[in-house]
Amino acid sequence: MQSIWQDIRHGFRVLGKRPGITLIAILTLGLGIGANTAIFSVVDAVLLRPLPYKQPDRLVFLSESTPQIPNMSISMANLDDWRAMNTVFENIAPYRANLAVLTGEGQAESLRMREITASLFPTLGVQPILGRALTADDDKVGAAPVVLLSDGYWDRKFARDPNVLGKKLNLDGEIYTIVGVLPNTKFHGSWRDYSLFTSLWRHEDAYGGAAQRDEHPGIYAIARMKPGVTLEQARAQMKDIGAQLAKQYPKTNSTHSVTTDPLLNAIVGDVKPALLVLLVAVGFVLVIACANVANLMLARATERQREMAIRVALGATRGRLIRQLLTESMLLSVFGGALGLAIAFYVAAALSAAAPANVPRIDGASVDGVVLAFTFIVSLLTGLFFGIFPAWQVSRTDVHESIKEGGRSATSSAGHKRVRAALVVGEIAVSMILLVGAGLMLKSFYRVLHTDPGFNQYGVLTATISLPDSHYKDPATQRQFVDQLVKKFQTTPGVQAVGFQKPLLGGWETSYLVDGHIDLDPSQIPSTDITSVTPDSMRAMGVHLILGRFFTEADNEKAPPVCIVDTTMAQLAWPGQDPIGKRIFAASGSPNDPAHARTVVGLVAHTKNYGVDQPSREETYIPYAQRPLQGGSLVIRSAADLGGLASTVRAAVQSLDADLPVRDVRTLDEIVGDNVAPRQLSVILLSSFAGLALVLAAIGIYGVMSYAVMQRTQEIGVRIALGAQQRDILRLVMGNGMTLLLLGLTIGLAGAFSLNRFLQSMLFQVKSTDIMTFASVPFLLAAVAFTACYLPARRATLVDPVVALRND
Q1: pTM, two decimal places
Q2: CA-to-CA distance for 93 and 96, rounded, in angstroms?
Q3: Average pLDDT of the chain?
């Protein structure tokens, strides 16, 4: 132990003799370790940390799926059959997201609410911190309405009042009794704050009921596997159950199957590839940082060969020398780790704050015990990585040659040169891989930003308004409210078009038939997304009309049913034909019933409603007057300031109904931007890591070439004395650097071709082997490397041969 303390004290003295090199090494390691720690904190929070439930690895997420929709909500009839037929789950607990309007507590408020069953919290292993959970009696149709509060809403609304139990809340015109408060645990899959939890089954009839198997009312389910049941067994049985139901109910289930996913994967599956790519990328940055520090250590080791030779001559073993040098490396890595930890605190906080809201669980990213352990292990491995090569090389020092020649051993110097050259080649290769990956992501993001979504999102303000059952249950009152609201803005200065629609983006899937194809096999019946719009809503959204017309006020509830289709829908239903005048039939009805037929009156451009970088489906629009819904989104296109218009929207709604809250008042451009925000963050981070790698690689090349010039000062002086010109010296020095560059580029290109195919799932309209990216990145890296080589080479041409020969 005493000898170890001696090594540590000696290590401090050695590092203190060259403070400049020591600080550069610590800063380099700090950047690499800090970036790795920050990204690992995000990966740990999002991907690795177990869900805060009892035995979370036994929880699975259930949904239906079709070839068009991979995660579709569950029919209640199918859900009943799943529960009755399976033998692999302890329980299947359904839930549904909803909104509730709170009145009677000051200004009306729209709250996010989960409709659940009494079995959900036992399935998750969650107990209320106050009061009780739902019971079987609460799940009965027509039961007295009760509600549980989230911890956050209890704190915000009731200041954590322990006497909140028994209080009444007026939700959608119905009086609910507060019976419990849940712990501060976010509900499955939600990065939003759900405030309320109430019973799903007491409204069973409202969701279609068991008799309507083709209704999919937004219900999903969480199930807990029985002890001893594996995920593969659960998937196999649910797949068999789905196949049985498809045979038993071909009209509604022929194309449907069951998705059985681990709950954690269902939550984070969309962001997992991007986070893993970033973790690998930042790991590459640390490798480059280690290579740079290893080069510094090798340079210092060369200078210390005579010292080491004397210590060996005095009886020090080679193992003792290796331990001393590794101790110095470990000291550097510890200081670098401490700096990296400080950097990680700020970077992790910044990532958590800057991350889009639709990145699940990222708000849990922090430097906790797990992250501290990761930093400690990375620091130790880093010290070993960059210290082992210099230590091994020094341990092979030729004692006699080093003492005789004053510290320069030809053998060990040659070995040092080979190792340092190999490290530089590795830095260039890794930088090449990162730069190509960043280039592909940048090009992909450019394509995303310049892809036409099919509508004009600029200059449009949107606002979401919910119409509760208590006042707007029948279609007449829904139509009346929407009509009055829209008319309030038609004469507003600056407003160019105003409409109301549901949903704002996307639509609800509906199966359909067309003339001449009404006797299709159930498995071949197509489907389309449906959006209900008022006459001017599509103009307000900036949807481009190609043929026919938009809806008018005449397309009301008394007029014949009509619709507008997009180009994708038209091509699928009537390829190569004019769709105007064609008819669409609801597949659930009778083709002979006029009430189930709609005539196409317009053709519009296809819109990418789920995000420009996401798959989109065919779209059909129907008049809101012919299919009113409980709420939707107000859409206003205006040449005036949209920020000032927001208060006008709220005032207009309040003037019609003081108990109606307005939420999500945002520009359409912001909504579209949110869809690509995760991709944007990934691009920024990957580009930053690639840029940092490029800088570190340039520093590494510069360091190696500078040291080579210093070591060859006498040789260069002799060459100049013998008549060598500046271009000869430049060619000599630059030739060595360019050789390393070409080797690194070759290896890097091969690595990029091999590894970047893993990026393909993250790219948009760009191939992972994009020729332009692979051709341009080497030029950028070569330009930087050329500059890093040229500066030492230029300095070599200025060597004074007299001074060089005298000093040696």
Answers
A1: 0.80
A2: 10
A3: 81
Assess contact for 238 and 62: CB atoms under 8 A: yes
Give the CA count within 13 Å in the CB-facing half-sphere of 361. 26
Other Cβ atoms closer than 10 A to 751 = 15
Task: Please give the single-letter amino acid code of residue 463.
Answer: A
Distance CA 741, CA 22 (A): 27
**CA–CA dist 215, 363 (Å, integer):** 35
CA nearest to 446, candidates 216, 679, 206: 679
Distance CA(299)–CA(304), nearest Å, equals: 9
Instruction: Indicate the DSSP class of residue 677.
Output: H
- Burial (0-12, 13-18, 19+ Cβ within 10 Å), 350: exposed
Question: Model confidence over 184-226: pLDDT tens digits?
Answer: 876 555 545 788 999 988 766 555 555 577 777 888 999 999 9
Paired tokens of 468 = 């509760």
* pLDDT tens per residue across span 524-544: 777 788 999 999 999 999 999
Q: Quickly tell me which residue has 């239903």 as its tokens.
A: 573
Torsion of CA 727, 731, 733, 736, to 10 degrees: 170
| Residues in the chain with pLDDT values less than 70 | 1-8, 10-12, 14-18, 20-21, 186-192, 203-211, 298-321, 385-387, 389-417, 516-523, 587-596, 704, 707-724, 726, 796-808
List of residues 6+ apart from 136 with CB closer than 8 A = 118
| DSSP SS3 for 344 | helix
Give 139's DSSP letter. Answer: G
The single residue listed with the structure tokens 């490029």 is: 694
The number of helices, as runs of H, and strands, as runs of E, in the chain is 24, 21
Q: Token pair for residue 773?
A: 């990216």
Q: What is the 3-state secondary structure (H, E, C) of 678-690?
A: HHHHHHHHHHHHH
The whole-number pLDDT of residue 689 equals 83
Cis peptide before 493 (omega within 30 of 0): no
Q: Which residues pair with 180 in a beta bridge?
A: 131, 148
Write phi, then psi, for 400 (nearest 5 degrees).
Answer: -65, -45
Bridge partners, 390 (sequence order): none
Nearest to 662 by CA among 26, 172, 107, 144: 107
| Helix, strand and coil in the chain, % to nearest 5 | 55, 15, 30
Task: Name the nearest CA neighbour of 213 among 69, 78, 66.
Answer: 78
CA dihedral in degrees (215, 216, 220, 226; nearest 10)?
A: 40
Structure tokens at 667: 């520009």
The residues that bridge with 672 in the sheet, in sequence order, are: none
Listed as own residue / partner, the contacts of 163-167 with beta carbons closer than 8 Å and 24 or more positions apart are: 164/130, 165/130, 165/131
Q: Is the distance from CB of 292 to CB of 703 less than 8 angstroms?
A: yes
Cα separation, 98 vs 341, in Å, equals 42
For residues 59 and 123, give the distance between their C-alpha atoms in angstroms, rounded to a whole number. 8
3-state secondary structure 694-755: HHHHHHHHHHHHHHHHHHCHHHHHHHHHCCCCHHHHHHHHHHHHHHHHHHHHHHHHHHHHHH
For residue 432, what are the contacts with CB-CB under 8 A and spacing of at least 6?
A: 744, 745, 747, 748, 749, 751, 752, 777, 778, 781
